[in-house]
Structures are given as structure tokens and as C-alpha cells.
Write a structure and sequence with these properties.
single chain; four-stranded antiparallel sheet
Length: 165
């Protein structure tokens, strides 16, 4: 049994977990809200509010889970950390193994609807081009989010307040 730790933006965390569990890459996952990450990115210190996803999966499902996450995660370099489980309740460990083993997966794996980045949530081979495609989608999404500056909202509120007076 393995625990896989993944951080993600709050607006996509549930979608990521749904794809993981639906496609049986894991038996279950817990979403831990309120995580504040501080990290160095491209020469700057950054801070982000995120959700920590704690995934419980079988040893055999880890490679497919990692491929799936690399394909659908919105970050250019997602945090995907696999931690071995030293000890667990035998019944729980068996349930995790049974629910996330390759033999349980449907063939072919059910595709989920296209996610907000326009990529399908079904797994597939991870290639350099698919990772670059994911990186480009993440960059475009970040650029789009940057264009929606909060200053516009502040200006609209000020205009509305002035109109009311």
C-alpha cells in the first residue's frame, strides 16, 4: 500500500480526485483544504493557497496513477510524492489493494468529461509532447487568470458606489 501526496488548486482538486477514484487508480483520496505552500519558482519566492490530496492506493497502481496525474494536473511541475506505508490495518490495506488494483480497472478506462483545461481525464502514455502540451495549457490558464486583474472589479465597485450617491 502507498500514500500519494498531491497539491492542487482548490478549483480542480475534486475533479482530480474524481478521476483518480472513478478510474480505480486509488481506493480513495482525502482533500485537505487550507494548505498554504511557499516555494521557489523560476527565481522567485511564491505563495499559493492549495488543497493537499492524500491518495490511498496499491503498489501496483502507482505507475498508472502517476501517469494519469502527469497528464491531467494543471501545474507545469505537479507535486506527486509517493510514501510507503509501513503498517496499516489489514482489512483496510486489503480494501485499498482490492479497489485500486489493475484487475479492477475497466478496459478501456472510462473517460471523464473534458476538464477545464480542455484535456481528457483518461490515462494514456505520458510522452514528452503530452507533458509539454499540459505545460502549455497550464501556462495559458495562468496567463488568462493574470489578465483578469482584480483592479477591474475594484474599479467597477467604485463606479457603482459613485452612481448610488
Amino acid at each position: 500500500m502507498k500514500i500519494v501526496l498531491v497539491t492542487a488548486p482548490a478549483d480542480v482538486a475534486e475533479e482530480l480526485v474524481a478521476g483518480i477514484v472513478e478510474n480505480r487508480f486509488a481506493a480513495c483520496a482525502a482533500l485537505v483544504a487550507g494548505v498554504r505552500s511557499v516555494y521557489r519558482w523560476k527565481g522567485s519566492i511564491e505563495c499559493s493557497d492549495e488543497v493537499m490530496i492524500v491518495v490511498k492506493t496499491s503498489d501496483s497502481a502507482v505507475p498508472a496513477l502517476m501517469q494519469h496525474l502527469a497528464r491531467v494536473h494543471p501545474y507545469e511541475v505537479p507535486e506527486i510524492v509517493v510514501v510507503p506505508v509501513e503498517c496499516a490495518d489489514e482489512r483496510y490495506a486489503k480494501w485499498v489493494e482490492d479497489e485500486s488494483s489493475a484487475s479492477c480497472r475497466r478496459s478501456p478506462v472510462k473517460s471523464l468529461p473534458m476538464n477545464r483545461l480542455g484535456r481528457g481525464a483518461s490515462p494514456g502514455p505520458v510522452t514528452l509532447s503530452s507533458l509539454e502540451e499540459g505545460s502549455m495549457a497550464a501556462k495559458k490558464a495562468a496567463k488568462k487568470a493574470t489578465k483578469k486583474a482584480p483592479a477591474k472589479k475594484v474599479a467597477k465597485k467604485a463606479t457603482k458606489k459613485a452612481a448610488k450617491k
